[in-house]
Design goal:
CATH architecture: Beta Barrel
Number of helices: 1
Order of helices and strands: HEEEEEEEEEEEEEEE
Oligomer: single chain
Radius of gyration: 21 Å
Shape: globular
Strand order of the largest sheet: 1-2-3-4-5-6-7-8-10-11-12-13-14-15
CATH class: Mainly Beta
Length: about 325
């Protein structure tokens, strides 16, 4: 391992372990294919029981770079009314010596808004727990007596819950969710010497729509806003083309902005931008595979900032009933 890479990751972790607020929710470029990861009200949207897998390697070439994995399954409980959606979400996020895992059981009540059942307003809640772990033996420090570096592996398990709203029609969706809603339940939330970063609430707002270009081509723009009320607001704008209900090709641009004055936010922070290319194929109507490649535009001197992400979706055909409109989201 190159000392420079170790040193770089050490500085990142030293920052995240200080009294500053680190990013604590997973980051996925292909969030449009895994709505349950950011909104519990998404549970049951596709109606068929569906498994989603995602794996992301961020900052290629940097030792100890973030690695994120997710597994989710969701669907409706009643083939006739389709009023209740259930889902399970499991995540794992690694960053050098840090290893964070979580599990959430999600419930969504799906209010029918149209006679043909093409529009629904969904109210969701997710209840679960998060485990934070730090392996002190993986730190590379010149000062072996540094009290801020933990000895061995230390863990913290905390309860958590999240809530969300999700509206959809055949050509439009709008969602909003709040994550990390129980930071006060941290066992050491008020301990200034805690080795774990204090959790903060995060707001996600997502929207997207379909524009039919022709009988064989659909255009799908989407936007995601992420706000943790402490750091810069993250904005992701994406555009996708769907060819013949078979091939997805698109790109997205992610950047950070400051919407209002935040007293605790450093004024000299560098904006981190990323341009992402995405391609996905519907292998069958119930199976989709996707790949994305992030090009970092705010370069770290001497390092690549590219990221790779793959996703797989596998649905199970309903026993009875039918899905009124295609599920583009």
């Amino acid at each position: 391992m190159m000392p420079g890479k170790k040193k770089y990751i050490f500085f990142i972790l030293a920052f995240s372990l200080s009294k500053s607020y680190a990013q604590q929710t997973i980051q996925l470029s292909q969030y449009i294919f895994n709505g349950l990861a950011v909104n519990p009200a998404y549970a049951g949207y596709k109606e068929n029981w569906t498994i989603n897998l995602s794996s992301r390697l961020q900052w290629e070439g940097v030792d100890g770079a973030p690695k994120t994995s997710t597994l989710s399954i969701d669907g409706v409980t009643n083939d006739d009314t389709k009023n209740v959606g259930l889902g399970l979400l499991i995540t794992n996020d690694r960053l050098g010596p840090e290893n964070n895992s979580s599990i959430y059981a999600n419930y969504a009540y799906r209010l029918r808004l149209s006679n043909d059942d093409s529009q629904r307003l969904c109210f969701g809640i997710g209840v679960g727990a998060a485990e934070y772990g730090i392996d002190g033996s993986l730190f590379n420090s010149a000062n072996t007596t540094d009290a801020s570096i933990p000895l061995g592996v230390q863990y913290k398990l905390v309860p958590d819950f999240r809530v969300g709203l999700y509206y959809y029609s055949p050509l439009l969706y709008i969602g909003a969710s709040m994550l990390n809603l129980a930071p006060q339940l941290d066992i050491d939330a008020n301990d200034p010497n805690s080795i774990f970063a204090k959790r903060v609430r995060s707001l996600y707002v997502t929207t997207g729509f379909i524009i039919p270009i022709s009988s064989a081509v659909n255009f799908k723009p989407s936007v995601l806003f992420k706000e943790d009320f402490k750091g810069p607001t993250n904005v992701n704008a994406a555009s996708y083309f769907l060819f013949g209900d078979l091939l997805w090709v698109g790109a997205s641009y992610s950047t950070s902005i400051v919407l209002w004055n935040k007293p605790n936010l450093q004024s000299n922070l560098n904006r981190v931008d990323a341009l992402t290319g995405v391609i996905a194929i519907n292998i069958t109507p119930l199976c989709r595979f996707g790949y994305s490649y992030d090009f970092g535009t705010s370069k770290l001197p001497g390092y690549q900032t590219a990221s790779h992400e793959i996703s797989l979706s596998l649905g199970f055909k309903r026993v009875k009933g039918r899905i009124v409109s295609p599920r583009f989201f």
